[in-house]
Amino acid sequence: MRDLMRILPPEFFSYAKDAENICEIRLRLNKPAVINRNGIKFATPFFVTKNNIDYVLMKASNASIYSVTESMAKGFITTQGGIRIGIGGRGVYKDGKISSIGDISSLNIRVPHEIKGAADNILPYITAKKRINNTLIFSLPGAGKTTLLRDICRNFNNGEDVLIIDERNELSGTVNGNCTLDVGNFSDLYVFLDKKTAFENGLRTMKPEIVVTDELNYDDFYFVKRAFSSGVVIIASFHADDIEEIKNICQAYKTFFDLYIRITAEDRRYATVYNERFKIADRVIL
Amino acid sequence: MKLILLLLSIGLGGFIGIKTGKKYKPPEYFFKELTDFLQYSVNSINLYKTPLPSIVETFSADSNTDLANFLKNYADYLKNSDYSKSELEKIIKNLPLCDDEKNELCIFFHSLGRFSEDEEKSKIKSFAEYCEKRRSYYAEMDAKYGKMIVKLGFTAGAIVGILLI
Fold it and tell me: Is A96 left (phi over 0), alpha (psi -120 to 50) or beta?
């Protein structure tokens, strides 16, 4: 939580007490800051100024905005501890391509939660039949896919070479080459590399046995398919809430996993496990 | 006794002359080093987009010059301060520069790190040009007046000595 406090304006500290429970902070220019604690949102009496937004950006970028402009152009920056800051503002174009975000008016600070043991109940399914199964984890945003993936990485402790393709630096929270979040001892990292480059280079040069990656896009299924044909196990996540949607995408790209896991956050977090035929196999509490 | 007095007077005059004659050296050296630092910064940003605190720390490590000491304080400022101008002014005020130069330095270092890569590099390059101009000015002043002030010091010392005798 020290990582979160490091980037917040000092005058906001009093509203960010019990930082362990904070999932998200939204700072909107000239509007009250909103804190989300364990899914419950409330507006604080703290009105956000331009200076507050600049302060957070400077702290988050290590006083070096130039080092994060490419990431800003994609709408976010990631800082120490895997904290992802979504950025809203005016798009700045150069040569017809978006080069950065100017006149920044809102920030969405998402705090990752490192829950060791989060994957304990689903690991038996991933490692069933004495092998590691290709697995696609899906849910709506904020249900805990990344937390689960991180814990899965940490659990590969038997010498399997794991390549983590961390396009948004949320899995590992890497700063200056050091992981600030625990992703296990057998992991190699590709941070801020797009999936295409990461899959092409990674499979050729890092010789992984398992590739773990967060937030696949539709186009990424093509690279996953190619990785399958090289005999590499893929464990990935995807934004969706319906197994039918997953089925349609997999059929469209002819890319099929051994296991599909849907995360839902109700009173507790549940994982619904689907088999390779998209049929429910089990439902477990996470 | 008179000879000792004369020698003492010449010595004192010379000492004051040497001290005063060297006043152009520290700012000249400061701007020379600063130009090197700016070049190093442009390279680091160009090649690796290295964050500013790392650039500053790497450049100032194992050095104890005016610029290195300023950069060490600046690295602390980047890491621990609220990025206010007044905090920066505090660490700039003891540098061997005139007020205008301190002001330019403050404006530049306060805005450093706040722009995109291209803007940052062009800002650094234009400030490097300013630094080079200031360095040339001090080098010129040193060549023009530095030695003359030393000679004047010795001469004044000799005259005072003779007058005293």
Answer: left
Average pLDDT, stretch A58-70? 91
Sequence-distant contacts of B77-84: CB under 8 A, at least 24 apart = B78/A62, B78/A63, B78/B52, B78/B53, B78/B113, B79/A63, B79/B53, B82/A10, B82/A55, B83/A54, B83/A55, B83/A58, B83/A63, B83/B110
Give yes or no for a contact between B120 and B45, defined as CB atoms under 8 angstroms apart.
yes
Mutate to test the interface with A, among B42, B44, B52 (most CBs of A within 10 A): B52
Instruction: Report, as an integer, the average pLDDT of B34-48.
Output: 93
Give the distance from residue A191's alpha carbon to the nearest chain B alpha carbon, in angstroms.
14
Owner of token pair 């800082």: A79
Q: How far is A37 from chain B (nearest CA, A)?
A: 27
Q: Which two tokens stand for residue A114?
A: 């490192």
pLDDT in tens, A101-140: 888 999 999 988 788 888 899 999 998 888 899 999 999 9
| DSSP conformational letter for A12 | G
**């007058």: which residue's tokens?**
B163
Q: How far is CA B45 from CA A132, A154, B49, in A?
A: 42, 34, 4
For chain A, the residue count is 286
Kindly provide the ipTM of the predicted complex, given to two decimals: 0.80
The Cα A152–Cα B94 span in angstroms is 54
Residue A284, number of CB atoms within 10 A of its CB:
15
- pTM (global) more than 0.90: no
Residue A263, φ and ψ in degrees, nearest 5: -100, 130
Q: What digits encode the pLDDT tens for the residues A11-20?
A: 888 888 777 7
Within 13 Å of residue A58, how many CA atoms lie on the same side as its CB?
Answer: 23
- Residue predicted with more confidence, A159 or B28: B28
- Count the neighbouring beta carbons within 10 Å of the beta carbon of residue B64: 8
3 state DSSP class of A253: helix
B interface with A, Cβ–Cβ < 8 A, is 45, 49-54, 78-79, 82-83, 113-117, 119-120
Q: Residue B100: is its pLDDT beyond 90?
A: yes
CA atoms within 13 A on the CB side of A206: 24
